[in-house]
């Protein structure tokens, strides 16, 4: 583990808990109240005018959510953070804060499909986008347009699990006056700290590893204070996609065990990936921690660990993937990932095969989220499914 690990454990366990402020509460209390009252109109006016530093209304600030925001900013080594009602709300806020009508967003490789759908939707406001499926800085540089304002990365990329070098892209973007945004959900701040590599904005879905128990939906944006202050008054307060204090409590509980869960996800997933690589019915395994992965060396220099989600491909496209998925007994079929359970799914719906091919996604792809249970049981389940589904 890198030299951030011990500090990150402390942050997850109790940084920002402010026991002295909350009557010695062992864990941060859940402030479920929607508003905060003041003794005079003058005091309220002062608070409203300086809402970032005062509790006024939970759509903006709330002590429980603020504790989560402090921890997330500290883990990313960022100056400030704001939480949102979902990962998509956070991504939308980061993008809308960064572009105006007429601007262009350049996406590096495959992004989460709803992020792509959001970018298509933003077309109606005159915001265009394009995707560079090559992950090298030279290829991306060629696709920068005069109106490119954002380079958006997700590393590893959606379903193809290619890595992006945030150091190369942040220096390229800075030369062109472009903002960089990275979706760091997969690595979590524990395994990758993109702000230290010069990236401008980190976004997270808190619904995955950070929450970690399949019981909350949330998102976060982390960046410099000036940017987050601006985003607070615009995209958070005006669009109102705030996180809930009740879910912030679940998040804080989940984060206390994050380092220890990640260690198990990492070890289990590597064992499962190695097994899959040896199975004759598997076409390829897309796990950046395997030496066979095209970005294995890059991974060693930008990541300090691997989480539990990766993909593999079988022959036969939709039918091939569905066959294997339908034979699974222990691993559940479902969307999302990052929790204790084992989950599998295919991006192939049977009608989007050509689209997947155009996006470099093998039609026989199966995404696997390896959970916290015994890896032997997961491997045995995959083995019988792959053997029986021929
Ligand atoms: N980013 C990634 C990489 C995701 O996989 C997801 C959801 O699956 C999101 C963002 C969106 O997060 P949420 O579902 O919390 O809106």
Automatic annotation (TrEMBL):
This is homocysteine desulfhydrase. The keyword Lyase applies. Its cofactor is pyridoxal 5'-phosphate. Signal peptide: none annotated. Its EC number is 4.4.1.2. Belongs to the trans-sulfuration enzymes family. GO terms for biological process: transsulfuration. One of its GO terms (molecular function) is pyridoxal phosphate binding. It comes from Neobacillus piezotolerans. The keyword Lyase applies. It is an enzyme of class 4 (lyase). The modification N6-(pyridoxal phosphate)lysine is found at residue 208. Keywords: Lyase, Pyridoxal phosphate. Coiled coil: none annotated. One of its GO terms (cellular component) is cytoplasm. Pfam families: Cys_Met_Meta_PP. It comes from the Bacteria. It catalyses: L-methionine + H2O = methanethiol + 2-oxobutanoate + NH4(+); L-homocysteine + H2O = 2-oxobutanoate + hydrogen sulfide + NH4(+) + H(+).
């Amino acid at each position: 583990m890198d030299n951030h690990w011990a500090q990150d454990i402390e942050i997850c366990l109790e940084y920002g808990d402010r026991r002295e402020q909350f009557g010695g509460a062992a864990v941060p209390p859940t402030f479920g109240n929607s508003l905060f009252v003041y003794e005079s109109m003058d005091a309220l006016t002062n608070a409203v005018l300086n809402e970032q530093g005062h509790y006024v209304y939970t759509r903006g600030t709330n002590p429980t959510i603020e504790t989560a925001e402090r921890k997330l900013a500290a883990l990313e080594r960022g100056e400030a953070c704001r939480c949102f009602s979902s990962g998509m709300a956070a991504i939308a806020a980061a993008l809308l804060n960064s572009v105006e009508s007429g601007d262009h967003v350049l996406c590096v490789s495959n992004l989460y499909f709803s992020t792509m759908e959001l970018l298509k939707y933003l077309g109606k406001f005159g915001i265009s986008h394009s995707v560079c499926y090559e992950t090298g800085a030279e290829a991306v540089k060629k696709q920068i347009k005069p109106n490119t304002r954002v380079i958006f990365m997700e590393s590893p990329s959606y379903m193809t699990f290619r890595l992006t070098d945030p150091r190369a892209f942040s220096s390229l973007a800075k030369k062109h006056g472009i903002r960089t945004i990275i979706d760091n959900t997969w690595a979590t701040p524990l395994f990758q700290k993109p702000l230290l590599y010069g990236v401008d904005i980190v976004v997270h879905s808190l619904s995955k590893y950070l929450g970690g128990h399949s019981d909350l939906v949330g998102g976060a944006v982390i960046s410099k204070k000036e940017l987050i202050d601006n985003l607070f008054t615009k995209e958070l307060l005006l669009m109102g996609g705030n996180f809930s204090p009740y879910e912030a409590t679940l998040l804080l509980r989940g984060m206390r065990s994050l380092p220890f869960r990640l260690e198990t996800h990492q070890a289990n997933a590597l064992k499962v990936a190695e097994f899959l690589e040896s199975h004759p019915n598997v076409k390829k395994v897309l796990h950046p921690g395997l030496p066979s992965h095209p970005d294995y060396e890059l991974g060693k220099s930008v990541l300090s660990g691997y989480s539990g989600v990766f993909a593999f491909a079988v022959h036969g496209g939709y039918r091939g993937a569905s066959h294997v998925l339908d034979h699974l007994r222990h691993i559940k079929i479902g969307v999302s990932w990052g929790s204790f359970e084992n989950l599998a799914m295919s991006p192939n719906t049977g009608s989007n095969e050509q689209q997947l091919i155009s996006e470099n996604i093998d039609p026989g792809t199966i995404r696997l989220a390896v959970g916290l249970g015994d890896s032997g049981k997961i491997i045995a389940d995959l083995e019988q499914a792959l053997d029986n589904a021929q």
